[in-house]
């Protein structure tokens, strides 16, 4: 049976002087047809038996070693180890791994298909082959493996290989890495779609200027009026609210502003930090706080000190007395910026501020500015000139230690912001009126996503940024506010991403 099938015909005979007339193994020496003489018949027979026994033992050992190696390989495969990497050189095509699992396609057909793909990838990557010599082999192997695993029959496999080769030959040659033309057909298609999506959503002044808030609506939406010249005249006459009577922002109780004995006074204000929302409890409609589940009107669940902000009529004039407003041009002139003459400013930026409470009211604690690609242009914590009442960590994400380590005061941070923000720069944000007011900056080109995506109930209601991001982009932000506060960089990026979605949606 073995002789007819030729199972060992390619293996060299283990016996150096084999005298078996019909040996199963390969022999490269002279003919074995001579028959030993009768005079040495007994000894020849014994030596032949010994040789056969040695040959059998040697063969068994060799097959045992091979079996052990195969067993180790199978163990690695069952343990999800990667298959043996295919050999590849710059002079020839790669080879299909020999230890891959069974597939509907014969190995010879797969190797031929791999050669076809490798030829097309080599032509495609001609400009980058010097710096990335193995890229054609890697792409060909990935493409072939992808087609093999998704083709149920040999005919479908060959058709898919042909279509892929044609598709690869029609790609624009890449001149750098990464590039949308690099990779398998699926990877290249996804990269091109991503590039087209990014280009369609790219934020330029021409694309987004139509979303800017009209100047006539600034006052209605609570923005500081850029046309009010009284806000830029002087400023700083009354920098502190010490000794004045204000109404607490949290518990709505009147109090006298003081920075003394803050630690001992902790607990003078009991309040709810959450918002109220309608809910039906025991068949009745009630307004429930999101922070503790209590009904509206019940005692607060959080302790703190009294804080305030200027929200009354004429609040901007009072803020100007604390510290004066400035336009972008004025800031640039004060710092002697040459960018105004050259117009070297960013076209569109995203901005977000984190607020804290001081004896001057609601004050700027942190300023973050990013460009439309998501790069951080400025991220600075503001050093306060007046005593701090509450760092507001739950919402600002800042700590007292971070504030104590701040270097730049408000005027310096504002000047740094105007190194990127010019007179024609469009600032995008969510609820920007408080940010501009805290910066004491007057600017007439703003996009407020809280206004761009109006609330169902209309003004003055506004949608939360996290709700817009969840609805339009499909992911969550501000998910751990109770522990770590907002991230100004995350909020600024999310605002620009929502604006990009708006640009793409309107273009369709």
UniProtKB/TrEMBL annotation:
<dbReference type="GO" id="GO:0005634">
    <property type="term" value="C:nucleus"/>
</dbReference>
<feature type="region of interest" description="Disordered">
    <location>
        <begin position="164"/>
        <end position="187"/>
    </location>
</feature>
<dbReference type="InterPro" id="IPR034922">
    <property type="entry name" value="REX1-like_exo"/>
</dbReference>
<dbReference type="InterPro" id="IPR012337">
    <property type="entry name" value="RNaseH-like_sf"/>
</dbReference>
<dbReference type="GO" id="GO:0010629">
    <property type="term" value="P:negative regulation of gene expression"/>
</dbReference>
<feature type="domain" description="Exonuclease">
    <location>
        <begin position="347"/>
        <end position="508"/>
    </location>
</feature>
<feature type="compositionally biased region" description="Polar residues">
    <location>
        <begin position="85"/>
        <end position="102"/>
    </location>
</feature>
<comment type="similarity">
    <text>Belongs to the REXO1/REXO3 family.</text>
</comment>
<dbReference type="GO" id="GO:0004527">
    <property type="term" value="F:exonuclease activity"/>
</dbReference>
<dbReference type="InterPro" id="IPR036397">
    <property type="entry name" value="RNaseH_sf"/>
</dbReference>
<dbReference type="GO" id="GO:0003676">
    <property type="term" value="F:nucleic acid binding"/>
</dbReference>
<protein>
    <submittedName>
        <fullName>RNA exonuclease 3</fullName>
    </submittedName>
</protein>
<feature type="region of interest" description="Disordered">
    <location>
        <begin position="28"/>
        <end position="104"/>
    </location>
</feature>
<keyword id="KW-0540">Nuclease</keyword>
<keyword id="KW-0378">Hydrolase</keyword>
<dbReference type="InterPro" id="IPR047021">
    <property type="entry name" value="REXO1/3/4-like"/>
</dbReference>
<feature type="compositionally biased region" description="Basic and acidic residues">
    <location>
        <begin position="62"/>
        <end position="79"/>
    </location>
</feature>
<feature type="compositionally biased region" description="Low complexity">
    <location>
        <begin position="28"/>
        <end position="55"/>
    </location>
</feature>
<keyword id="KW-0539">Nucleus</keyword>
<dbReference type="InterPro" id="IPR013520">
    <property type="entry name" value="Ribonucl_H"/>
</dbReference>
<keyword id="KW-0269">Exonuclease</keyword>
